[in-house]
Structure formats: structure tokens, C-alpha cells
Amino acid sequence: MRRIKKGQEPPSLAAWKALANEVWTPTYRILQNPQKRDLHLSLLMEQGFTCCYCGREIGLDDSHIEHFRPRSRYRDLELDYENLHASCLREVHPGTPSICGHLKDERFDEESFLSPLESGIEERFSYTLTGEAVPQDEAAQTMVDALGFNKPFLTSRREEALQGVFDADFLNSATRSEISNIAIQFRCFGEDGKLRSFFHVVARFADELL
């Protein structure tokens, strides 16, 4: 998981929620465009167009709005911007792996679930060169299981990202400065405002080499 820094909710959503009165209550179920699209785009932009959980590149057409604390149990948070993220996969079809927000679904535990907003969240996980996510504590293990982090769909893609940088030649010759630069640069947004798939994993692997 990569730490996400929340911004301000989009003005159109704030204005829509401000219309609440004694006979009308805004709810997520009745949220429509343009407010819903504005919300979705705002979430993607602050996440660098990557999934809030696995870090895979996503866009409006292949992601969904994720409630970290599920709507079924936290009605007061269903439109709370701090509780909303963008997660990969818009819908799960037969043959599509269920991961991240879709696999987590309505599961949640206040004591053991880790939020992408938490300080130090990245350090709760490390990664092997073959793409396996290695939890560093019990709560991190809970998230690996809840989000399907070690399903082949994700491990194979993380392996490809890692070995595209840390091949044998590089590992045999890299200086501490070169590795440190990777740890920094792979956490930076591009000029297009985007991150690339699993760049936070590459940066975290570099951290472990230092």
C-alpha cells in the first residue's frame, strides 16, 4: 500500500451536500453526475491515477469509488471525502480476479484494518523480487489477505515492475546513491500528474536495499 494524502473534496460535491434540508438528505445512493464524476476524478488525481490499495494504474473507466469504512455500517461516512478513494476494477466479471476494493467489499475491522491515509503505511509492507507482498506485522497480514495482494494477478505484475529496474546487472553494480535516487524518484508524480503501476513497490524495494 502507498500512503495517500487527501485534498479537498470537489466544490460541486460540497455544494450538492449543502442542499440538505429537513425534507431531503443527500446520500451516496442518489449521487449522480456531474457530482459523482467530479468526485471520482478528484480521487484519481490525488492518487496519481493509481489504485488506493495495490498501486496499479487506473482511470475513470476501469476503477470504482471505494468506501474504506463500508456504507452498510458507517452511514454517516458514506459521503465523507476522507473515507472515499478510487480502487481498481470497475466491475468484477467471471474470470476477472477479485482484488482490492471488490475483494474487501463490506469487510472492515477498526482494530486491524490499515488505511492508505496512515502515516508509515508503506513501511508495513515489503516485497520480494518475485512480486510477493511481505507483511511486517499482523495488521499488514490482515490487509494482504483482505485485498488479495498475493494473488497471481498482482504478484506477476509487481514482479515485472521490480525486475524491470532491479535486474541482476543493476543489483551487482548499483551504488547506494543510485538506489537512493530510485527510492525518491519512483515516488514522484510525473508531469502528467500520474504515477506508474507499482512504482511505490519499486521505491519500497529500494528502501530495503539501503
Describe this structure in words.
A two-stranded antiparallel sheet has the order 1-2. It has 8 helices and 4 strands, in the order H-H-E-E-H-E-E-H-H-H-H-H. A hairpin with a 5-residue loop joins strand 3 and strand 4. It has 210 residues and is mainly alpha-helical. It has one domain (11-209). 35% of the residues lie in helices and 8% in strands.
- How many β-strand stretches? 4
Shape, please? elongated
Question: How many helices does DSSP assign?
Answer: 8
Task: Report Rg.
Answer: 18 Å
Taking the alpha carbons of the first and last residues, their distance comes to: 20 Å
Biggest sheet details: 2 strands, antiparallel
Characteristics:
210 residues, mainly alpha, two-stranded antiparallel ribbon, two-stranded antiparallel sheet, 4 strands
Compile the SSE list and pairings.
Elements: H1 11-17, H2 35-46, E1 63-67, E2 84-88, H3 100-104, E3 125-127, E4 133-135, H4 138-147, H5 152-163, H6 168-173, H7 176-185, H8 199-209
Antiparallel strand pairs: 1-2, 3-4
Helix pairs in contact: 7-8
Short description:
By secondary structure, the chain is mainly alpha-helical. It has one domain. It contains 8 helices and 4 strands.
